[in-house]
């Protein structure tokens, strides 16, 4: 088998030499260029497998080369070399399609990891299909675009921020990015940041040393280490307390963590994906989410639209859910009547695809005969529509009372729909459990 070929672009001879030695020791051939013009010429002549480029070059900016590589008929992975601490240019390069960055002075183990990841990317394409266990269904244009974007993002190490309502498929998207990436042989670790008690968070994330606090009876690895070589998915990232936001920022920037009670930092190689159903922009504005962290986790954003905006996806989803619930035997699988499908396509789906799964599960238990009819779906009264109150008029009372009435009505409906389960109701209402409990108390509904 041919040894892979890496193109090194840097105007400093010392750096070129250091990179050549490191790569040659990894059995990688190297070609060197001192500037953008030479690099472009080499890329046209040789069939390179990856490119490492400095940002500041005598005849322009490394970003120009990143752009150029994206226009090739078969773009190769390109990583940029940045001055230590200059995350801005690293982020810019990743937004343009660079798959990762490495800072000077080089941390050699980190550099080797980056190169190995890049080389895996070059052959990831052939094994992609086999690796994909999950499927993101839906033939709407937007879902087709999302699938294409997932394929592209899988070839990068850039942090991706996935936004969208609860139950819309954010975690599924994250799993797919991981599975189609060069990291798919390693772990995909998903963590719901809202579910970890604040005082344990640092140790859960970064691990701890024995004896570092009461209860730390032995050394423990954290989630970053569990995800080593793979992907860490921070779900509900908006729920991270500010104290941990600072530490997370450091971990992303330095690619290193420090377990609680440890003097030493440990290098980590993870890809970070994050999601929330809340509006992080608003949270940045009101000071509850750090702007610098937002900027770093949101290098690339991907929005998953709510199900109500893509009713055309419902038939495929229903078929998939029914097949999953009824197993391989097609004979046992009921058919959804046309009127039932029409009812679903009109429904608001505050809980999105997860709610559709619940509706179908209930319908399967209730239907009678061969077809699932609209009655079997037991669609909840649409809280969205029912909560619409008459136009506001000052004669009816203050605006505050009016809004309180709407809130009361919506909460009551959703609580009824979820048989009093506050956790499920909060999720459906797009609130944290704590904020639902607070509102119930404010509205004197907490008995
Ligand atoms: N396009 C889709 N095709 C197939 N299944 C889907 C699709 N979208 C969502 N699902 C399924 O719907 C369920 C909810 O999706 P998921 O957990 O990814 O949502 P989420 O946006 O991460 O929710 P939350 O914000 O509550 O964490 C999962 O069982 C998932 O497999």
UniProtKB/TrEMBL annotation:
Q: Which residues carry this modification: 4-aspartylphosphate?
A: 54
Q: Which residues form a coiled coil?
A: none
GO molecular function, a single term: ATP binding
| Name by which UniProt lists this protein | Two component, sigma54 specific, transcriptional regulator, Fis family
One GO process term, biological-process aspect: phosphorelay signal transduction system
PANTHER family found in the cross-reference section: RESPONSE REGULATOR PROTEIN PILR, TRANSCRIPTIONAL REGULATORY PROTEIN
Question: What positions does the domain Sigma-54 factor interaction occupy?
Answer: 136-365
